[in-house]
Design a protein that fits this description.
The complex is a heterodimer. By secondary structure, chain A is mainly beta. Chain A has one domain: Porin. Chain A is globular, with a radius of gyration of 19 Å. Chain B is mainly β. Helix content of chain B is 10%, strand content 59%. Chain B has 1 helix and 10 strands. In chain B, strand 2 and strand 3 form a beta hairpin. Chain B is globular, with a radius of gyration of 15 Å. Classes of the chains: A mainly beta, B mainly beta. Chains A and B meet through strand 5, strand 6, strand 7 and strand 8 of A and strand 1, strand 5, strand 6, strand 7 and strand 8 of B.
């Protein structure tokens, strides 16, 4: 109900947005594919905010990871269903090592990195306001000043989901 | 490896015939082979190079030591380009079928065009290992576009 009201309120100025979620796989350059949850919001002006969450837990450690990017997205020339985006992104790792510290408890570390976000997606229309979306996003992280050597860290996700236009 | 480079150059020379090729070139730089992170740019190593040729219908064929790809070039008015492609990939884990996306930007053209590109790949080996190499390159293109 509230979303319908919001949609009506925004439509006179030609503003629309799409919200969606889905799942897929993500890899952080360590040759492992982890399952992930992918959520996004995209405006009719092409501004895209996407977050990919993943995590893993075993007897030694637990890690939660968020890969987010804010990008400008545009249809590929002469294509109605293919889009590409460019923007900035970041990765946040929260790692808890399951070891008993002298003072008790486990040690937790938070690490982060930021870089260039590039992506490609296929988003066919399924219904009046419903769209499917297959997203392939990548984040290129320059390790300090070594960008002059073109060396980058790399993470990428491949996900599929459904989005709703408001 | 030297033979592979010769083969790449021979292929580029062959398809650079004005009647056939719309754009052709070679790019080198930094390559990530799926073993953690990329190496620094190494222009002396043939494995860092990628040769490509694009036909007038925007069909693009890309050859490198780490892939053989066929894709389609989408050119933006802003001199940016995107090339989704599919083919055969290789990295430190092995080789197998997969897809690739190349995002590039042409800096300027004066007889030849200078461009940079980010390329990501995603595929799988027959033993289901991930093939996820990537590259950051700078290149030179020749085009007969009027």
């Amino acid at each position: 109900m509230s979303l319908s009201v919001l949609s009506c309120a925004l439509s006179p100025v030609g503003f629309a947005f799409e919200i969606g979620t889905g799942g897929g796989m993500v890899t952080y350059g360590d040759d492992r594919a982890l399952p992930c949850l992918h959520s996004w919001m995209q405006t009719s002006f092409g501004v895209l905010l996407a977050i990919t969450n993943s995590g893993e837990k075993n007897s030694a450690f637990a890690q939660q990871t968020a890969l987010a990017h804010l990008s400008y997205s545009q249809n590929l020339p002469r294509s109605r269903v293919l889009e590409a985006n460019i923007g900035v992104g970041a990765i946040l790792f929260r790692t808890t090592v399951n070891q008993t510290l002298p003072e008790g408890g486990a040690s937790t570390a938070l690490s982060r990195a930021a870089g260039l976000a590039l992506g490609l997606r296929w988003k066919p229309e399924l219904g009046r306001n419903l769209r499917a979306r297959v997203s392939w996003d990548a984040l290129y992280v320059p390790p300090g000043y070594s960008a002059v050597y073109l060396a980058f860290g790399h993470a990428q996700s491949l996900s599929a989901g459904l989005g709703w236009d408001f | 490896m030297r033979n592979i480079l010769r083969l790449v150059f021979a292929c580029i020379a062959f398809v650079s015939l004005p009647a056939a090729a719309y754009r052709t070139g070679i790019a080198g730089g930094s390559l990530g082979l799926g073993n953690g992170h990329s190496n620094a740019a190494d222009f002396a190593s043939p494995i860092s190079y990628r040769g490509h040729f694009t036909f007038k219908n925007k069909l693009d064929v890309s050859l490198a030591a780490t892939h053989v790809l066929v894709g389609r070039v989408y050119d933006f008015k802003s001199a940016a380009f995107v090339v989704p492609a599919a083919g055969y990939l290789a990295d430190g884990n092995g080789s197998g079928p997969g897809v690739s996306a190349t995002f590039g930007f042409t800096f300027f053209c004066w007889a030849l065009c200078l461009y940079s590109e980010f390329q990501q790949q995603l595929g799988a080996t027959p033993s289901r290992a991930l093939v996820s190499g990537y590259a950051v390159r700078v290149g030179i293109d020749y085009t007969n576009e009027k």
